[in-house]
Each structure stands twice: as structure tokens, then as C-alpha cells.
Amino acid sequence: MGLMISSFVLVLAAIISIFLGQLFTKISVSYISMIIGGIIAFMPFINGQIDNFNSEIFIGLVVAPLLFFEGQATRLNLVEKEVKHIIQTAVILVVLCLVIAGFGVWKIAGISLPLAFILAAISTPTDATAMESVTNGLKIPKDEGIFLKMESLFNDASGIILLNMTILWYVNGYINYGQTVVDFLISAVGGIVFGSLAAWMVVLFRQILLRSSFNSLNAQSLLYLITPFVLYYLAEELHVSGIIAVVCAGLVHNAEAQRSKLLNAPQVHMGYDLVSMVTETLNSIIFIILGFMFVKIISQEKFSNNSFNWLLIGVTIYLISVFTRYVYGRLRLKFNNRSAWIFSLGGVHGAVTLALAYTLAEFHVNRADFNLVLMSESVLIILSLVVPTITFKFILDKDVDDEDIAQEMGEIRINMVRKAIDAVNKMYLPDNVKDSVIFDLMAQKQKTRTKDFVKQWIRVVRHPEFTGAEKELEMRAFMNALAQEREYLDMISQSEVKYQDYVFELYKEVLLAETLVIGPTVSE
């Protein structure tokens, strides 16, 4: 019951933050979510409904599907081309950051060496999802973007293996290097093999269903949505990397989508919409939890005289990480100065770092050290978000301004609807049909008032339904009008290259509208 209430509170908070993100477009929705999470922490009734944070549930139910969908957005042949760079960033760079940060924190903060390396290990995974929150309204160069994306997809497993090694060091007092290397290879290679094979079997099963009389759009969509959850937990039961397994599964599903999008177009389209909704919701929930936990720990815990040691440690780890990544980018990845800073600051931390910090609760780590790790890693996450958000405004080129987009697309939309209405007015139609069609077309301008809708709603309730002939005339009027809109948008997409992507989105909206008006055969 507690988990259900907690989930409801988090989803409701995510809905609010997404709405506010549409209102305050200059602020990333991630920051809004963090603020809402912090506010929840100060509300006794609500924060009491949120269960104790469980890292295993968090990774399995939130992080795993996000990585699966992120993997699906990446072409498999791109990964094949970037294998060398993936090893450089997801393995070599991770180990390098671990060693430098571990010794640096140990020397500066005066804590035990095993604890210092635990802090360093938790800080190694980066987050592609969090990266999007710091580039709001900015364009990241293609090459640097690919490096950061490939790194974040595959370095989580490295961080998890290294964390397990450092925890054993903390508990037992020694490191088993040979076992750590073996565990890493088994976990990583096992995750790749299991994730790829299992996903391929799921894909084949779904493709067989698509070509059979047993296919069901809703059942297929549900099967698709539960795939990352099932694969993650099965991989973990087999003691291989569940994170790598879901990433590889996503890559396999990308190839499926490329070759079967027209086999069952409604199903594929529903899949895109579901992924968009789930991804946006889970992203928001991640930052709500981060804001909630950070405020809750600060407000509840009683720190010692060294209470601000966590702040020093968080800042130290972040600075070491940034400069290590910069030097590595310059010397090993052969970046120029600007690209190296983009790569360095683009190593943003988020969900996985937070979840790994909470895994310490499952081991024999004393309470004071556990709190120190939580607070330090929270500082690291916040710095990794705030610093690039500010710095990238001076380094990266601006994307098309939101106000310019709104103004330009508003004009295009008005002209589009005007052409559609002109086409309808030229048709011979009964007045009631013509009025109905024109009202719906006017709604495309997004300028109709709620008062107008209420009048039309009352009209529908009071007046009889259109006859069969009137329904057919209505449908054909819509088809003619929407065809004019598509023709206009096709022309605009060729002349307005700057806004081409946004014009295509509007074109897709018109196509979707057309599917709504082309109903079943009209009976007389």
C-alpha cells in the first residue's frame, strides 16, 4: 500500500512539474522537478506517504526503462563504429577518474582510503538523460554529443563493478584485483550477450505475432513496455549487468523499428507515444526524488563538527572529475580546447549516481559514512547540473529561440488553416456540415475560446446526429481541407529550412487529424 501511495505522489508531482515546465520554458523541467521534490520534503503529510528509498526498485523501475528507450534511440551500427571510443570513455576514463578522485578525496578530506574510493566509484557513471536538462535551448556539436551519449550508455556497469570492489575493500580491509577483473568481464560480456539474445527473441516473437491472427495492438504495446523491466531483473538474477542488458536490448529494438514501421503503423505510432510519455514522466520523477532526498537528509540528520565535510568532498570530486575529463579529452581523445570543455562539463550525473549511493544501505557501512556519501554525491549531482547550465550558455551555440519558433509557427499555422477553410468554402455543403467543419479547422489555430467550445458542445447535445450522407460529406470536406494543409506545409518545409523540423511536426499533426476524420464506412 505504501509503495502505491508513494508512486501516486511521485507521478502527481511529475505531472505538476511537466505543466510548470510548459509555463516556464526558460527553465529546464529537471530543475522544476527538483524544486517540487524539495517542497514535498517540507510537507509532513505528503512526505510521510513516500516510502523509504529503495535503490534496487529505483534502478529496475526507473533507470532501466530509461536506458532501454535511450538505447532504442541509438542505431546499432553507430555503436559498432564507436566501440573504440566506448572502451576509452566507459572503461579507461572511468578507472582513471576513480583512481585520481579516490586519492584526491582521501588526501583533501582526511577520510579513510576505502571510503574515499567508494565516493569516487559512485561518481563515475554519467547520465544522458540529465545531460538534456543542461543543454536546454542550446545545440551540442554532433561529435561531442555522440561521445557523451555512448559513454553514458555503457559506463554504468563499470561504476557498479568498481563500487562493489570498493565496498568489499571497506568491509574486508583488502582488494581482490583478480576477482574484480573477472567479475567485470562476466558482468559486462554477460550483460551484452544476454541482453542482445533475449531482445532478439522478444523481437522475433513480436514479429511473429504481428503476422498472425493472434496479434493485438494493446497486448503488443504492453509487452513492449514491460520488456526492459523483465530483462533487467532476469539479468540481475543471472548475475550479469542488468544495465548493459537493457541498453543492448534497446539497440536491438532500434533495428526492429527501422524495418517494421509500416507493418502495423498504428501500433508503431502508439509505441512512440507511450515511450514519449513514460520517458518524460520517469525523467521528472528522478529529479523529484533527488530534490526530495537532498532536502530531507539536510533537515533530519544531525551532523558532527565536520558537518560540512560532505560539501568539501562533493566539490572536490566534481572539480577532479571535470579536469580529469578535460585532460583526457585533450590528450587521449584528441579534442580541441572547446570540444574538451564540452566533453568535460557534459559528464553530468543523475539517477544512477543517486541509486548507487543508496545501495550502501544494503552493506555494513556505518550510518555516519552513509550520510556522508549521500550528501557528497548529492552535491556532486547538483554541481554537475548547475555548472554546465551556466557555462554552456557561453560555449555552445544557441538553438532557434523559443519565441521566434512560436511566432513563426503561429503564422504558418494560421496560413495553413486559412487555405483549408478556403477549400471548404468552395465546396457545395449543407450549412450545418460546413459550420461544423470550419469550427474544427479553426481549432487548429489554437485560438478558439472555451466559450466557443461550450456553445458547440451544447449544439451537439441538442441537435440530432448528422445523417449518413452528411457524415460522408463532412469526411470528404475534411479530407479536402487537410490535403490543402499538407500541400502548403510541404511547400513551406522546402523554403523555411531553419524551422523545417517544426514544420514537419505540424505536418505530422495534420496527418494524425486526418486519421481521426476518416472513420468506418458511412451507412445510409
Automatic annotation (TrEMBL):
The keyword Transmembrane helix applies. The chain crosses the membrane at residues 6-24, 31-50, 56-74, 86-105, 152-172, 184-205, 240-257, 278-298, 310-328, 340-361, 373-396. GO terms for biological process: regulation of intracellular pH; sodium ion import across plasma membrane. It is a multi-pass membrane protein. This is Sodium:proton antiporter. Gene3D superfamilies: 6.10.140.1330. GO terms for cellular component: plasma membrane. GO terms for molecular function: potassium:proton antiporter activity; sodium:proton antiporter activity. Pfam families: Na_H_Exchanger. It comes from Companilactobacillus pabuli. It is found in: Cell membrane. Signal peptide: none annotated. Residues 13-397 form the Cation/H+ exchanger transmembrane domain. Keywords: Cell membrane, Ion transport, Membrane, Sodium, Sodium transport, Transmembrane, Transmembrane helix, Transport. It comes from the Bacteria. InterPro entries: Cation/H_exchanger_CPA1, Cation/H_exchanger_TM.
